[in-house]
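One chain given next:
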Amino acid sequence: MTLLTVSADELRAAAPEPLVVPRAREEIRKANKESKSWVIVLDDDPTGSQSVHGIPVLTSWSTEDLVWAFAQNATGFFILTNTRGLNDGEARETVRTVMENIAVVAARSNVDYTIITRSDSTLRGHYPLETDVLVERAQQEGRPYSALLFAPAYIAAGRVTATDVHYVQEGDVFVPVGDTNYARDATFGFSSSNIRDYVQERTEGSIPAATVISIGLDDIRTGGPNRVRDILLGCSGAVPVVVNALEDSDLDVVTLGLLLAQQEGSRILCRTGPSFVASRLGIEARPPLDHDEIFVSGERPGNGLVVVGSHVTLTTLQVARLQADVADLEVVEVHVPSLLDPATARAEVERCSAALAEAMTRTDTLLVSSRDQIVGDTGHDSLLIAQTVSRALVRLTRSVVDAVPVRWVLAKGGITSSDTATEGLGIRRAIVAGQLFDGIVSVWLNRSDTALTDLPFVVFAGNVGDETSLAAAVTMLRQHRDLVSPAER
C-alpha cells in the first residue's frame, strides 16, 4: 500500500502535545547506576554513536578489550560488530562470539548487562537474524526476553515513527521509508513502511503484523512511563513492540517505562536507531565539538584524509559539493570497474597508492571510489562488491598512514568507516568525543596504544546531513591548517 508524504506540522497535529518529563535523563542515569547493569550496544556499523559523547567504543571484542571497556568511567559502551557489512553466516557467528566473550568477562567482573542491537534508522540490516541469535541465547540461558523493543527513530536526522509508520525527512516533507531509495538497498531492500508490516515482511510471515504490539504516541504522551510499563509487562515471548516517536522526549518516556518494567522482572531486548541509545544511557545533548575538543593532544602534523566508499545518492551529491567548495583538495579516484577485474585490480591499487602518497605530502586529500554504482545479480553479490571496494580503500589508507603523517581521517559510509577504523588505522579502542553537527557525524579519539593515539577519526554515515555537510565537515577539520607550518605537515 502506497502511503502519502506528510509535513512536520501534519505529524505534530495528529498527536497529543509532547510529554516532557523534568530531568528525565538525570533520572535515567541514576537508575542505570543503581541497577549496576551496563548498557552494551552492539552496533552493526560505526555510525550508531552519533547521538552520544564520552562513551567507549570497541572494534574488537577480545577479553582484554572488554576488560578495558568495563573499566572506563561510564555505564555503557559500544561494540562495533560491523555485521551490516557481513553476509548472513558471518553476521550470525559474529554476534554469537561477541555475546560469548561478553558473558565471560561480565562473569569474571561480577557485573550485569543489558543489550541494545543498534541498527539503521532507515531499516536496513540483518533483521531478524541478529535478534534471533540474541533471543535464542537468552532462552538457552534460562533468561528469556519478554519483548523486542523496535525503536528506529533518529530524531536529529529526520527519521521518525508515527501511527507505526516510519518516515524519512526529505527537504520539507516526511516520506514513508518504503518509498525511499533506502528501501531499494541492493542487499537489505524491503517494501513496507509500517513497522508491523516490515516485521511480517522480514520474518517471511513467521511473525504476522497483527501480533506486533505498538506503543503509540497517545500511550507515550497521555499515559506516560506508567502506561509504557504496563504495555511491556503484558508482553511475552520476545514479541516485537513498535515505538512511535517524533521527539527525543517520546523516547525518554519509553526509556523510563522500560526501566520500570525491568524493575518488575521484564527482560527487554532493544533494536534501535541512534536516538534511543542516548536516551537509554541518559546522555544529554551537547553542542557540536570545537577545535580543541577534536585535537585534544594539540595540533598534529601532516594533512587530512577523506575516504569515501558510500554510494547512496546523498553521498554522491556531498562529494560533488566537497570538490566544488573546498579549495586546495587533491582527489584520488579508485576506478571500481578496474578494481573488480582480476586482470587490472593490482595495477589499479598500485596506481592509487602512489598518487595518494604523493598527494598527502602536499595537502588534504579525498580518496573516493568512482561514483557509478555497480550492483550484483543478488544482494549477496552486491555485498561482495561493496566489500571488495572497501578492502581496496583500506589498503590504500593503511599504506598512506604508514608512509606519511596524517592529521585527521574522515570516512564516509558504514562499511567504509568500519574497515577504515579497524584495518586502515588499527583502532581497537576509542572514545566518542562528540559530533561535528547537532546529533550527526561522530568524532572518535583513538585510544589504542599506537602511533595514532588521539588521532581524530570522523565517522560520517552515508545517509545523513544535506548536500553541503561533507564540505562543511572538511572545512571545520582543516580550520587551523594554515596555522601549521609546511615543515610540520
The chain has two domains: 6-281, 291-488. Confidence is low (pLDDT under 50) at residues 482-489.
